[in-house]
Write a structure and sequence with these properties.
The structure is a homodimer. The first copy, chain A, is of the alpha+beta class. Helices cover about 35% and strands about 35% of the residues of chain A. The interface between A and B is large, with 70 and 70 residues.
Chain lengths: ~160, ~160
């Protein structure tokens, strides 16, 4: 049985463990910086802009969807940004991702967001199949750009 | 003389006019939905997550940078999302974009954001040249995904 529900206060540690396991499965541990306390504060602290849904398979944490408030200049209103939709390797191919995506969509409609957007790597065939199947528009030919560390400091100087 | 400064309350109309001109120059007017009042509320209303810097060339509005608060699960903290960096056609190739980007970087550092991220179309050579010149990382092979309208309603049902 797959159940999707909002994360509850006090579950920052469980979320951290799942994100850590996901980072390990993607060989991203070198860049993995969150702490349980930091996640808890981001989700439940004052002025929070992020939310998280957890998926459980038979009571075990199986995946999560992390979203935050965003804004579209062309719509002139807030939209939802889906920062992360992940299913632990052991629970993949059971429909967990789709259940999470459905719950994210319900939340977006509840909150009055007209649109959800996210980015996906080109090679992510599982993602493409899921997102296409629900009617998402997938625009290729995009670059993800980022400036941080020394380069950010130099530009700001 | 190029001057970059934060937008001020009451300038929602001027911003709207510039965004409208930019949308026209990109043939995006069909999807252009903001209103001056909506922009004003998004920027200066309670719980605002967005900010905007305006560039002026000799006192005339020449471009804008629109950003909003964002969150990275791998960093476990807030980062800055650059939603839009635009220069009106008549003011291009004068260094306005770079001045805006520098001001965005200063703001990010002031606010304690460790990173700024954004997306760019693959074919945007002017953007690529500017962003590379300041040390941004540009990752190709990304898709921009979006669900809205009927598809969002069906998924949420």
């Amino acid at each position: 049985v797959i159940e999707v529900r909002p994360i509850r206060p006090g579950e920052g540690k469980a979320l951290w463990e799942m994100l850590h396991a996901l980072a390990a499965s993607h060989n991203f541990l070198d860049n993995f910086q969150p702490t349980p306390e930091g996640l808890e504060a981001a989700l439940f602290g004052p002025g929070s802009i992020v939310g998280c849904l957890l998926a459980e398979c038979d009571g075990e944490l199986a995946g999560c969807a992390f979203w935050h408030r965003s804004f579209s200049t062309f719509r002139g209103c807030e939209v939802m940004y889906l920062e992360d939709l992940s299913v632990l390797p052991a629970f993949q191919k059971r429909g967990v991702g789709r259940k999470l995506l459905e719950a994210v969509a319900r939340l977006a409609v509840e909150k009055g967001y007209p649109s959800i957007f996210w980015v996906m790597m080109d090679w992510n065939e599982a993602g493409r199949a899921l997102y296409s199947s629900v009617g998402a528009e997938i625009e290729p030919g995009v670059c993800y750009c980022r400036i941080h560390g020394e380069a950010l400091m130099r530009l700001a100087a």
